[in-house]
Known about the structure:
Strand order of the largest sheet: 4-3-2-1-5-6
Number of strands: 6
Amino acid sequence: MIKIPPRLLIFHELIGLKCRVISSENKYNIGIEGTIIKETKNFIIIDGKMIKKKNSIFLITLPSNKKVLVQGNILLLKPVDRTKLLKDGERYAKRNIRISSSRKHL
């Protein structure tokens, strides 16, 4: 099992992780859940459904079963470019990413 620290999730590969759409500009996307099967610069594809990253919020389940709320706007890069940022990721994460301890979405 790959160990992904919650604060560094956005710098890792998302394909294969479980995901639920918490908020979206398209009200029909809210509540969609499943496995991320593909990712592009602007979209996450969950079990065949294309979800726009911009202005969406995702609840992503890590392999350790921890759940992390992620704003889609911080994922707006090509996945390969985003994973290249891992070197500086810890510094970025400390300034910009908050891990939700709220049980509301869990």
